[in-house]
Write a structure and sequence with these properties.
This protein is an alpha/beta fold and 294 residues long. The chain has a single domain, classed as NAD(P)-binding Rossmann-like Domain (Rossmann fold). The chain has a 7-stranded parallel β-sheet with strand order 3-2-1-4-5-6-11, with helices on both faces. The termini are far apart.
Length: 294
């Protein structure tokens, strides 16, 4: 099976490429830049270049579409960029997949649900995003599922839990806390720290993409989330247990998504997916990893 992975140079895309390779797939990366990896082919291109994207997708069975403006801060500062890449770029994925006869597995987000009406949140829960990031991710999801219905493009959207693992962006809460603590600087929690997230390890997300790539499921959105709910306060405590420093509390951060407990039961039923990395194990991996603090 030949798979094109968009956003392959990024944190999550890199992990997904690795998992697909371990599953025996033939992987091509597609991104604005190369990484120098020798275990995959790398194609430099832009999601906004439909013809270039179509050429890259030729002779591929599946497109795993990870490429996006995934930084919520950047999406808030430049909503026009988020709309262009996340909506128009994903629409191009749908068109390219139709042209070449490929299946699409799309990286959506649990944040599309907005404030929970009930919990656990399942895939039938209303979607009510309220931030340029999750609004544009839902729009991309809807374009792909419409392409499945109207044009026969087999598509699955995976609504991912908050991803973590080695290689995260330095502005992630994990890296901010760990890097500050290593240097002995105090940690500041925005709000009371009770806000929880179902942090989902990147390798588990990679397995979900591998399963979805081989699955016959189509026209559906599936939650891919760890069952563990971890608060930001618990995250900070795990960091300072390894690198002792002070913890303080500040004003809540505007635009933070309200915590919701999301169910991954349907992904287990449809794909046979279950997470394999618990938070304690994943956190230990992060805390023990070497870092360039320069």
């Amino acid at each position: 099976m030949r798979v094109l992975v968009t956003g392959s140079a990024g944190f999550l895309g890199g992990h997904i490429c690795r998992t697909l390779l371990e599953d025996g797939m033939d992987v091509t990366g597609f991104d604005l830049q190369t990484t120098g990896r020798t275990d995959i082919r790398e194609d430099v291109g832009d999601l906004l270049d439909l013809d270039g994207l179509t050429n890259a997708a030729s002779d591929h069975d599946v497109i795993c579409h990870i490429g996006a403006i995934g930084d919520v801060y950047l999406a808030a500062e430049q909503p026009q960029l988020a709309a262009s890449v996340n909506v128009t770029g994903t629409t191009h994925i749908a068109i390219a997949a139709e042209r070449v006869g490929a299946r699409v597995v799309y990286a959506s987000t649990w944040e599309v649900y907005g404030d929970p009406h009930y919990e656990p949140v399942d895939e039938t829960h209303p979607t009510n995003p309220d931030h340029p990031y999750n609004i544009t991710k839902l729009a991309g999801e809807r374009m792909l599922l419409a392409a499945d219905k109207l044009h026969g493009v087999p598509a699955v959207a995976l609504r991912l839990g908050t991803a973590y693992g080695l290689g995260m962006r330095t502005n992630s809460v994990f890296e901010i806390f760990i890097r500050k603590a290593i240097k002995g600087e105090p940690l500041t929690i925005q709000g009371d720290g009770a806000q929880g997230r179902q942090f989902t390890h990147a390798s588990d997300i990679g397995r979900a993409f591998a399963l979805a790539a081989r699955s016959e499921a189509r026209g559906v959105a599936l939650n891919i989330v760890s069952p563990e709910m971890v608060t930001i306060k618990q995250l900070a405590e795990a960091v300072v247990e390894r690198f002792p420093t002070e913890v303080s509390f500040g004003e809540p951060r505007p635009g933070d998504v309200a915590p919701s407990y999301v169910s991954g039961a349907r992904a287990s039923e449809v794909l046979g997916w279950k997470p394999g990395v618990d938070f304690e194990t994943g956190m230990r991996e992060l805390l023990e990893a070497p870092r360039d603090l320069g």
